[in-house]
Amino acid sequence: MPEPMSAIALESLNPSRRRFLVATVALPVIGAAPFVLDRSRDSSAVPTAPAGPEIRVASNDGRYLAFGDPLPDGASIYAPGGRTESTIAVRDQLTGAIRTMTLDRNLEPEAFSPDGQTLFAIDHRPAEAPVAYRVSTIDLETATITETLGPLKTELVEEMRGSGRQQVWSPRGDQLYTLYVRQFHDHGHVEPGEEAHDHSVIQTAAFVHVLDVATDWALCVDLPEGFGMGPSDTTAIMIDETGTTITVVDHARGSMVEVTRLADTGTDVGQFMVSNLMPISE
């Protein structure tokens, strides 16, 4: 018996910055009523859903769609709240095949590999009351979860803390850059064993998280001290057409930082050069 379906219209933005429209998308109903996708013309808009699966991400070529558990009011993929398992559904738009997995983690889909066989997900830890996260990979054939390693296939030691602000793809679609602002003692980001401080005491530090979906590695590029200390909606990230220079802007303090991607060969894989703080160019 086929799974129950609903239909939606999906608008997304691929790395080449040309919009594509996937109309009347059929999706599985995961233990609840189907949802209505409400995406505005702004590509950063977040879909809303009264119940049932919520769309999280589309592959860069539009072939694959990933759906996740509905989020509580006020939650986001960076702060989803506690849960000990996650239901993720992936639909192949070409064949109509749907794979539904229930995994014993607190996972939020973030990106597909170019061949659509791997799903990268934000892995919130501890699952019951998250205070940190890593990026994990999900093999969509076996539902096996592994931790994403560093660019030289070394284990990543640090678990990330913070809130993702904006994302931008490299022009060739091999790397996803996410601007994060770490916020301790606020928004629930409290070190294990510590008591929450007054919300007037906030320590922030910004970084760009690099996820290479083509060769399966990740790293964090720290930005200069003092960047991103203002309101969360005053920072932005962009990339030039060559995919070499990532510019991060902090409008609150009138400054910007350039992050240069070096040649991805030999020991230079995953190497980035970070400039000092500079005044925003007119």
Contiguous low-pLDDT stretches (5 residues minimum) are: 1-50, 184-202
**Total DSSP E strands:** 19
Helix and strand content put the structural class at mainly beta
- Count of helical stretches: 0
Estimated helix fraction: under 10%
Mean pLDDT: 75
Number of domains: 2
Span between termini? 61 Å
Sheet of most strands? 5 strands, antiparallel
Fraction in beta strands: 35-45%
Please write the string of helix (H) and strand (E) elements. EEEEEEEEEEEEEEEEEEE
The quaternary structure here is: single chain
Description:
The protein contains no helices and 19 strands. It is mainly beta and 282 residues long. It folds into two domains: 1-147; 162-282, no CATH class. Strands 15, 16, 17, 18 and 19 form a five-stranded antiparallel β-sheet that branches. The model is unreliable at 1-50 and 184-202 (pLDDT under 50).
Which secondary structure elements does this structure contain, and how are they paired or packed?
Layout: E1 5-13, E2 19-28, E3 54-58, E4 64-68, E5 86-92, E6 98-103, E7 106-112, E8 118-125, E9 132-139, E10 145-147, E11 163-169, E12 175-184, E13 203-212, E14 217-222, E15 235-239, E16 245-250, E17 255-261, E18 272-274, E19 278-279
Antiparallel strand pairs: 1-2, 3-4, 4-5, 5-6, 7-8, 8-9, 9-10, 11-12, 12-13, 13-14, 15-16, 16-17, 17-18, 17-19
Summarize the structure.
The chain is mostly beta strands. The protein has strands at residues 5-13, 19-28, 54-58, 64-68, 86-92, 98-103, 106-112, 118-125, 132-139, 145-147, 163-169, 175-184, 203-212, 217-222, 235-239, 245-250, 255-261, 272-274, 278-279. It is built from no helices and 19 strands.
